[in-house]
Task: structure prediction
Amino acid sequence: MASAFSNTRNPKLFGTGPSPLIRAGMLALLSIVIIALDHREGHLDRARQALSVLTYPIQLMVDLPHSALERASESLATREYLLRENRVLQERQLELSARTQRLESLEAENERLRELLQSGARVGERILAAELLQVDLDPFRHRVVVDKGSRDAVYPGQPLLDADGVMGQVTHTGLFGAEAILITDPSHAIPVEVNRNGLRTIALGTGDITRLDLPYLPNSADIRPGDLLVTSGLGMRFPRGYPVGTVTDVRRRPGETFAAIHAEPTAALNRSREVLLVWRADGTPFERDPLGEPPLQRDMRDEESLPGDDSPPPVPPEEPVDE
Amino acid sequence: MSDQPAQGRWAIMLSLLAALMLNIWPLPEMAQLLRPDWVALVLIYWILAIPHRVNVGTAWLAGLVLDALTGSVLGQHALALAVLALLVSGIHLRVRVFPVWQQAITVMALLTVYEVILLMVEGATGQLHNLEWRWAPVLTGTLFWPWVLFLLRFLRRRFNVA
Result:
């Protein structure tokens, strides 16, 4: 058996270096070590970044025909088409800016109310537009590549939005590009709340690009089809209040602990090419937010402790052990 | 081997690069599930043809790039391709003289082993999804083998890679 693996064809190489069997064995061991290190997150991010110098150009090359085609169709568009598009966009812009006016006064009011409640004011966010590269990574997992990387201060864990809602979060960054996981990936979960009543739960990806799963709500939960789910800000990854999905069906199952609830993502996960990356207003990541603890906890602490008192009060004194 | 023309190496590199690009080329959703493992096919060809130049190490490196490219667990495709390369280098003298259809059957067996290793790694890292479509790439890879063979053989003769 072993003779089948020794390479006898080329006499020059015969006897030089280890046989393919031994070499493959060593490389297999090395791969298993790498898999283990990479699976326990973060140990090999440097190696991935180094490899992305090699892989990002390949992804760009694959994307090239599509972006070139897009540019060509833009430059070949007829005059009437451009005029019509321009008119539609202007109307839309007018409508949106009218809505923003109201939003600004609401935001100011919200801030005043929050000050009255002595809870920290939520400041705005900084946003950077990015483009998705047209590449298929793996049909079974929902991952995308964006054309902004650590050079533009993109960081792992960063929220990714489109015009209609949350799309996902960045998983790995290279220098020029980054890889992101979509909220519908089977290994993704996002903390959400029902916009109507603040009911909190977790939305899991299903592997189906049009469906989210809400498996942790009891049969008695106040939720119904049509409810808008927004990010709850718990989990410290996503900013609070961005739309995630709309509840499509609620099946209450007597005899089961939890209801079967599904939602449809509001973001156009498989159609958007333009996406948005979000930072806090001062450009710092969300997860290293010193005030980024869940708003609920902070509000409760504000109620029950004196201002400036940071330690939780019910801890008993611990000196009289050895004195 | 020092008298090899430089373009021989380029033919190998370019065919591997093309395979890597085809592996992430955007396709309609249905066709995505049927996408053959181009990198595995190209490596099988080169190892059958010139095992003294393309071997386990080449396959492992290509696998590592494929891992980084598709965002899978680093080492997954590297492991699978290294084992695949070992098997091919073990049987290359016999398979090389097979008629095409027998080669295709051998390739099907090799791709099955490759897919099983990928599945084992995914199972070990807790990412096992959508099992029912996992064998489609094996079948399409087998169907594409004759074309890969003819194209790369043409390339090899044209650029005198030996």
